[in-house]
Amino acid sequence: MQDTYFEHPAEEALERYLLKRCEEEELETVETHLLACESCVSRLENLELDITAMKQALAQWQEEEAARSAKIVQPSGWRRWFAIPNLAWAAAAAALALSITLVPHYTNLNGKAANVSLSAYRGLESVSVPEGRSLHITLNAEDLPSGGAEVSLVDSNGATVWSGPAQIHDSRAVVTVPRIRQAGAYFVRLYSKSSDGAEPELLREFSITVR
Amino acid sequence: MLASPSDSSPTPQEKPGQETQDTNTKGNLSAVEWSTLVAQIKAGEDAGMEQLYKLFSRGIRYYLCRQLGPQELEDKVHDTFLIVVNAIRRGDLREPERLMGFVRTVVRRQVAAYIEQAVHMRREQADLESGIAVADRKQNPEQEAILRQKTELMRNVLQCLSQRDRDILVRFYLKEQSQEQICREMSLTETQFRLLKSRAKAKFGEIGRKKLNSSGILSVLVRAQAS
What we know:
Chain A is of the alpha+beta class. Chain A has helices at 11-18, 24-36, 38-70, 77-80, 85-106; strands spanning 114-118, 127-129, 135-140, 147-155, 160-169, 172-177, 184-192, 202-210. An 8-stranded mixed sheet of chain A has the order 1-3-6-5-4-7-8-2, with no helix packed on it. In chain A, a hairpin with a 4-residue loop joins strand 4 (147-155) and strand 5 (160-169). In chain A, helix 1 (11-18) crosses helix 3 (38-70). Chain B folds into 2 domains: 28-128, Rna Polymerase Sigma Factor, Chain: A (Orthogonal Bundle), CATH 1.10.1740.10; 141-226, Winged helix-like DNA-binding domain superfamily/Winged helix DNA-binding domain (Arc Repressor Mutant, subunit A). Chain B has 9 helices and no strands.
């Protein structure tokens, strides 16, 4: 009986639907209701906008937070009068000498990888990633069998920027992509593993914007 | 037996001034005479077709757009209705009360078929060209403006929250951690978690209203509603 489809879903259920966190039974109920309920589609559109705004605001906040914590604390005006320039220069020279010797051995030039989760749904959401940082990308691989796969990153002209192997496990595939030097639109493509010379099959495509 | 419209009770969460969706929890769906509707479609009556379209067009359009993007959306919606109507006429839908679920099955199959078709086409195109044309998925300017404004409001809200509250939101929305994981790792009860989220939303609404008040938009809207 479709009585269960008549009730308007609670906001939390709609949120779970948008975030793809519904259990199968709830997914069926919410999705079926939405197909026939204009008002809930409006609610969902508003909620989608709110969630996207929330994600963007949180991402911006995190970036600012990282920038704030990385900022060197400058001494206040009166303290500068008491600084000893010669010693400061000596310390700087020592630090430079040390960094020339040690830094190349211990520093990953890409810096800390940015974590990115991508889903193939094409809603309002556009995933922004930072320019000049390597990316630790988790791709949604729901409904795909576990096993080997190939991932490639292409620019908006379809030119391959990077490609590499990946493993699909627990409905996810995780890859680390080297830093992207140029801002713009890119696509991450998940392919089946090619075997016996057969052409790999395009399984999913995800959109990202490098800013 | 389907409930009559009068059986439905008002939504408890609804407040005066809130966007009115339906005045009852079950909306208008419980009032639909499914067997009559299906019989009318079978008989090829315009009234049945109209009602079917009125009921499902917005939902189907939204679903297809969400899953497949805005390209050729009208054609896809039209195709879906054709499939539903033809199937009903053929007698594939034996229980009219299951029409909603039936439409869902058809729409999901349509989405799967379009994706499969797109994948094949792309592969063929990739053989012919070095570059693949990429569809424009940008939002329209109005949506972008609303999103910018909402993001700004959200940032104001985030400033009002504690670091811990912000961490919870980051985990849930950005890192996509489950509610269970967040509660476990941050020693929260489910109620505390839900409270935090609703508190953030309430703040968002409050700051949004203040902004609207200060810009005078709200008073214009109120006057427009009253007139």
